[in-house]
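To the structural biology subgroup,

Please find below the input and predicted structure for DUF4247 domain-containing protein, which we are adding to the shared reference set this quarter. The sequence is reproduced verbatim from the submission form. If anyone notices a discrepancy with their own records, reply to this email rather than editing the shared folder directly, so we keep one authoritative version.
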Amino acid sequence: MPYKWFQSIKLLLVPALFLLTLAGCGSPSLGETYPLESVSSKDRGQTSRIYRAENKTVPVVAKELADQNQPDEMSKEDDQHMFLIYPDEIYHIQQDAAKPTDSLIEVDSKEYVRNNYDSSFLQGYILASVLDDLFDGHKKGSYRGYSSKDIYKPTGTYHVPTAEEKKAAPPITTSGKGSIVKRGSNSKNADSSVGSDGSIFKKQVEPAGSSSGKIIRNSSSSSSSSSGSVTPKRSSIFSSPKSNSPPRTKTGGFGRITKRR
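Predicted structure (tokenized):
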């Protein structure tokens, strides 16, 4: 019965854990998917990070991000600009004006949006109720996104991310040059390794024909039964048995077998 209960609980927990993994917590981690291209950071929590999605349209990127983690609000589909609203950040997915085949993902803190963006520009994409809560009646900037930063300049400046900034938002990984070699070979003295330098995890192969010990069986013509002994090559930690004669059995009882001393 306990085993059946355990199986039932396991069947219930596996789907629940799968759903929690899909749901995630907070906004998706872009650094694991897209390379970090530029950053802007000011005081009072004004931060902006730019990621590049190569050869992907704005609607495709927006859908990928929304599928990873459902935003509070998502703007209607548009080939130029789309917005995802999260509790602490706003994602502005925009077509790169310099390279239209790519999309730029601008991750802005709400404080950055409040102090830089043109609220009239956002009215075409974000719900009025969200804008009212975000700007609180104040219109401060004329910024319209990183793709047009040279025309509608933000109050801060963007720069190439430093090593510390890349650690905070790690870029995507690239293919390495290492190799994996499966152990085992038809050759007699072949060894194998894991890694590009071949200097670790060496497989040591003993010479052909070597053995770790031998078994010698002694037979006696005067006895119907034969006894054997094992002579290891190296010293053994196991002591020899006290007697090689067959065990003695008792009749009746519970069928126990005792060894004769």
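Summary notes: The two ends are 45 Å apart (CA to CA). Residues 18-27, 171-205, 220-228 have pLDDT under 50 and may be disordered.

Regards,
Lab coordination
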